[in-house]
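[09:14] KT: can someone run the structure on this one? pasting the chain below
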Amino acid sequence: MPGGAQSTCCATASGTAPSTGNELARERFAQNRFTVTRQLRYSRDETQRALDIGLFINGLPIITFELKNNLTKQTVGDAVEQYRKDRNPREKLFEFGRCVAHFAVDESDVRFCTHLQGKASWFLPFNRGWNDGAGNPPNPNGLKADYLWREVLTRESLTDIIENYAQVVESREEKPRDKRSRGKIRKQIWPRYHQLDAVRRLLSDVAEHGAGRRYLIQHSAGSGKSNSIAWLAHQSIGLKRNGAAVFDSIVVVTDRRILDRQINDTIRQYTQIGSTVGHAERSGDLRRSIEDGKKITGAAKIPPAMLNRAKGHFRRMPATLFSTKD
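[09:31] RB: done, structure tokens below
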């Protein structure tokens, strides 16, 4: 029964999305069972409550959906309120870490939440944006929101998100509820559309053209820049072109020490092997990080001249990710 599944959502697929020429990975990936259940009854009590759709991989719940449409004169806001008021977070299906995300969807708008907490449930937009603003562009071929299932929730795309983006991370409370200690809080992460789109576009272009190009990504405050940098750095290490690695290492440079610590902590949590991540305050630190075989090095306020002094220690120049306030 879905509500009684005991495994977490982070290790569901048998094998990752297959790379070109890897027949074994392709065979294993094909064995995964992606299923959708409509009117999923999740409650074990006499109410027998049900939600609109549940998405499963190999029998484990991954995503839930509440769907609304104009025929019933309901919008995505009604779906959000349904999650907040009618979906008990104590139910097994809605417990923290049970599913990677809960989606509220209507014909033109998409929102998601990773941690249902009743009225405190926080839903973020998962829209593509339109005319430099919110929402989704007109779709001459169907619903504005159909990119969700046609693009994001395909077998390959969903597997990629689970493997490389979705994760439970820990952070310290800025204003701890208990003044006697600075407790850690656990958060479940799912990328917003603009983050997913930016990282995938960059990786795709580098895979096609190789190293040497420059890119500019603009993020507004609170849009998840640290996560976007961490996802890009983490996946750039394994990026290949014509069978060879594009980059030997990644250097992440920030202009603020607070942001430097934040990004470094984020990268470490997304990297499977913590020993591959280093930190540099001076050119000597950067040199030693390279010599020690660190794949990703965070560096605060390191000027270009310092990178040039360390250049001789790279077999080829690294991918350098600059994060600035302006």
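[09:33] KT: thanks! Residues 1-12 have pLDDT under 50 and may be disordered.
[09:34] RB: yep, looked fine to me
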